[in-house]
Design a protein that fits this description.
It contains eight helices and ten strands. Strand 4 and strand 5 form a beta hairpin. Helix content is about 45%, strand content about 25%. By secondary structure, the protein is an alpha+beta fold.
Length: about 220
């Protein structure tokens, strides 16, 4: 965004630290805040009555938490929870809506982001249904590293199992396979990426499709 477009929102942005497992929006609860993750990584989680959970989308420093509310959808069936502790910016939804009304550039940025987010939603659904846990785990780790911009981050096997919708031992086995390939190191609730190329080789094509959608979203339309 240009400095002039940022002027409409900058005075209302509050920086805060989001701890791991912080619930930003509970299912069907009204939200009046939006968040822009800086180093935090936030999940949209589908939590079923049976207690089973699975992540349907992830939001990091490429996006905004609460974009669905901009279309009047103040109540969502998803749990929105922070999964990697880090910094974020927060502002009241009403003030952001006012800024959108006065800035065509801001509306364009948000529209391109929402389009990329929809690609992520669709591709994640296909990935969760068709690809192996190891490939999905590799994709998840790559996307998380893209957002935290460092080789290591806090993540327990239990939480990763919740994100992938599988049992904890299954995640432990998948991480063990990636560690045996020399791609990662997993110890004491921390994941360290050792060989990104090896991790990309273990991931499915969904990582490239989702990443490409977000790269395209960062580019303003030609003309």
């Amino acid at each position: 965004m240009s400095p002039s477009a940022l002027e409409g929102v900058a005075p209302y942005l509050e920086e805060l630290i989001l701890p791991r497992r912080e619930q930003l929006v509970r299912p069907y609860e009204r939200t009046d805040q939006i968040y822009f993750p800086l180093s935090a990584v936030v999940s949209w989680i589908s939590a079923l009555p049976s207690g089973a959970t699975i992540e349907v989308a992830t939001i990091g420093n490429e996006g905004v938490v609460g974009a669905s509310a901009l279309r009047g959808e103040r109540r969502s069936p998803f749990l929105v929870m922070n999964q990697v502790a880090g910094a974020a910016l927060r502002m009241p939804l009403g003030l952001f809506e006012q800024a959108l009304e006065t800035s065509a550039e801001l509306r364009g940025v948000i529209a391109r982001y929402v389009s990329a987010f929809i690609v992520q939603l669709g591709q994640s659904g296909a990935c969760n249904g068709l690809h192996s846990v190891t490939a999905r785990c590799a994709r998840w780790l790559l996307m998380t590293q893209d957002r935290v911009a460092k080789p290591d981050f806090g993540m327990t096997h239990e939480l990763l199992a919740e994100m992938l919708g599988v049992a904890r031992p299954t995640v432990t086995e998948a991480l063990g396979e990636l560690q045996a390939r020399g791609a990662i190191q997993s110890i004491w609730g921390q994941i360290r990426i050792l060989d990104r190329g090896a991790l990309e080789g273990a991931a499915c094509e969904c990582y490239g499709i989702i990443s490409s959608a977000y790269r395209d979203a960062r580019m303003p339309p030609e003309g």
